[in-house]
Amino acid sequence: MTSAFENPDWLEHRVTRIINADDERLAPYRNVRERDLVGREGRFIAEGKVVLNVFLSNPALAVESLLILENRLPGLAGQLKSCRDDVPVYCVSRQTMDAIAGFPMHRGILAVGRRNAPPTVDALIDALPNTALTIVLCGISNHDNMGSIFRNAAAFEASCVLMDETSCDPLYRKSIRVSVGAALKVPFARGGSIEDIVDKLQNRGFEVFALSPSGTTSIYDAAPGPRTALLLGTEGEGLPKSLLQKLQTVTIPMSKSFDSLNVATASGIALSRFSRFSGI
Amino acid sequence: MTSAFENPDWLEHRVTRIINADDERLAPYRNVRERDLVGREGRFIAEGKVVLNVFLSNPALAVESLLILENRLPGLAGQLKSCRDDVPVYCVSRQTMDAIAGFPMHRGILAVGRRNAPPTVDALIDALPNTALTIVLCGISNHDNMGSIFRNAAAFEASCVLMDETSCDPLYRKSIRVSVGAALKVPFARGGSIEDIVDKLQNRGFEVFALSPSGTTSIYDAAPGPRTALLLGTEGEGLPKSLLQKLQTVTIPMSKSFDSLNVATASGIALSRFSRFSGI
């Protein structure tokens, strides 16, 4: 346990110690598990040191405040130095932290961030390079899956993630956490129908592969173009039949007696194969 | 909503209707989310129709009882016919079901199963065919990851999953659920140290690939043998250094700036590549 007097002076001066869990300045952090910054206006919650590092390294995102458990302070000196001086850093005891969060908040590091209006699907597609691998999501409404897909997109350097309007927001707390910060790193845009997104990609020269258990070509045989988009739907309903009929469909070859993969796992397998890293 | 009198006579005679959530016969189903059949003696809980189907199709597993929400009965006629006559089928209302489970139990289908003593690691290895792809787990203690790895093992027809003693039991409720039943299908054995398991596999002619971010050969370049074992450790600590030094290490090639995959996703990518289905 590190007590206050062991911290260097600048660190003690930098932080604002708060004892009362009901302090109004802590409102954005209250019961973070139950609510998710309802009416968020571009705000999000980042948890843990790894996610905080990804957050701080993205100049498009602004830090509104930090909430740090007192014994985590010494390990965050570098991160705090990189924050602007006018960003409040609240420092609390374990007891206060758990009372604010509403559950034992083991990580002890929370941050409220804000981002400007995200790009539109059109603008993001227009900004893509000539060689690009993008992920396109249809109806992905589970925050775990969304976060896992972003983690895979970052690991295999997908250019961006595009989502139709029925997919969930990648900046929900749980999605950011599961993504290990990738949701704060990989560019994304959400909106419109999946048909519109596919049309726009095809007009910009993208080869759109629809990943489906009923796909006709193995991902190991399909030949990606310089601009490739990988389209993924939900595990239950899958992609709309009309789309499957007009696109090249690809499949992950697997057992006939247990043809069931999690959608995020499927994204990882297909991204690994189509990424420039695979060399195949 | 289906009421009792719409069910065929045989179905009504087959089930035992229970109104009182405190009925002693329902004890194994009580608060299933909080406890997990502590002191289970080979018992497990299966949830949902898909998992129940996998469960019933495995002759090595015995059904002890079923607990079915009344409006799910008509859709389970086939499954109930395949159960022995002396297996109790308890049928309850939505209100009673939620009171028993301790939370809204949407699936409405629960079963308590039992399996005989699992095979030892030695016995399971001895029973493997000449062409085999096995998964070997070291220190996997997260039930979500365990379940996801089993799901992938089933999808790519791994011969079995072997686990050291520090890995968790795949028959925990959550693990079975996440595996979509694969934990009740894919043979597994757990016990001993990871070094012992690796020694036994090598003595039986297995090529053991240790999957690691620091691995020297890309999974897309590594050449699997007729008997291949894929060794996976935790995301944090990874595999013991002594093992990495004596085994062929393989890696999933990915971004240098975000070299982080979930261990279950990594298992899916490597299984897909090394399975007979990939054709590479």
Automatic annotation (TrEMBL), chains A, B:
- Keyword Methyltransferase found: yes
Q: Which is one GO molecular function term here?
A: RNA binding
Source taxon at top rank: Bacteria
Question: Which keywords does UniProt give here?
Answer: Methyltransferase, Transferase
Against CDD domains, the record matches this protein to:
SpoU-like_rRNA-MTase
Q: Where is the tRNA/rRNA methyltransferase SpoU type domain?
A: 133-271
Q: What's an example Gene Ontology biological process for this entry?
A: methylation
Signal peptide boundaries: none
InterPro entries, alphabetized: Alpha/beta_knot_MTases, Ribosomal_eL30-like_sf, rRNA_Methyltransferase, SpoU_MeTrfase, tRNA_m1G_MTases_N
Put simply, this protein is called RNA methyltransferase
Species in which this protein is naturally found: Phyllobacterium brassicacearum
